């Protein structure tokens, strides 16, 4: 989804509002004010607040997974790709609190946002299973992805609420997920504490 400059401003304003309020509480006037555009511009760029919410959720999911996928070189082990992906999400929530708050508030219940865990993260898990880095039964994959997604959301919440730093929450979560998937403890800790590269734009 390629967005114009105006659409990006509207999406950013919408994410900020949706992170704080339910969809039914958001109105065009405050959306226009925060986005810094006229009300008419808002009307010209959306059909409803509900459709805007789905657009924002879809864009968030696709954009973040694309950036995480591009961060890894082809030779990187699936264990490191998964650990980095987990830490990227948690670090971004620290750097962009509205983004993290939106994720925490809706990702467990919104179907569009749940697709975050069925793209590149699932491919990394399946790759790790195929290469015998992980040990679980194929039919357990939905439960594995639920564990990963839930762990990321709770760790994100800890960071947003100030209980943990993103570094500690990210490394701990990545380490525990890898250990749960069958990676030896020492190896999991080493992978989860490597220097995290920049997330591509």
From TrEMBL:
InterPro entries: Homeodomain-like_sf (IPR009057), HTH-type_TetR-like_transc_reg (IPR050109), HTH_TetR (IPR001647), TetR_C_40 (IPR049513). SUPFAM superfamilies: Homeodomain-like (SSF46689). Residues 4-64 form the HTH tetR-type domain. Keywords: DNA-binding, Transcription, Transcription regulation. Residues 27-46 bind DNA. The keyword Transcription regulation applies. Signal peptide: none annotated. One of its GO terms (molecular function) is transcription cis-regulatory region binding. PROSITE patterns: HTH_TETR_2. It holds the Pfam family TetR_N. This is TetR/AcrR family transcriptional regulator.
């Amino acid at each position: 989804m390629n967005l114009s400059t105006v659409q990006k401003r509207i999406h950013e304003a919408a994410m900020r509002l949706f992170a704080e309020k339910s969809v039914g509480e958001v109105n065009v006037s405050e959306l226009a004010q925060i986005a810094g555009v006229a009300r008419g511009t808002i009307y010209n760029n959306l059909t409803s607040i509900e459709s805007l919410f789905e657009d924002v959720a879809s864009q968030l999911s696709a954009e973040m997974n694309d950036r995480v996928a591009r961060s890894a070189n082809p030779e990187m082990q699936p264990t490191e790709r998964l650990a980095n992906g987990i830490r990227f999400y948690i670090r971004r929530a620290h750097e962009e609190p509205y983004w993290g708050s939106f994720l925490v508030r809706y990702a467990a219940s919104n179907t569009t946002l749940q697709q975050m865990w069925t793209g590149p993260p699932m491919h990394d898990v399946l790759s790790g299973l195929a290469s015998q880095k992980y040990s679980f039964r194929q039919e357990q994959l939905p439960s594995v992805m639920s564990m990963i997604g839930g762990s990321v959301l709770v760790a994100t919440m800890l960071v947003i609420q100030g209980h943990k730093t993103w570094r500690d929450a990210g490394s701990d979560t990545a380490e525990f997920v890898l250990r749960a998937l069958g990676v030896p403890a020492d190896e999991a800790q080493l992978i989860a504490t490597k220097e995290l590269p920049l997330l591509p734009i």
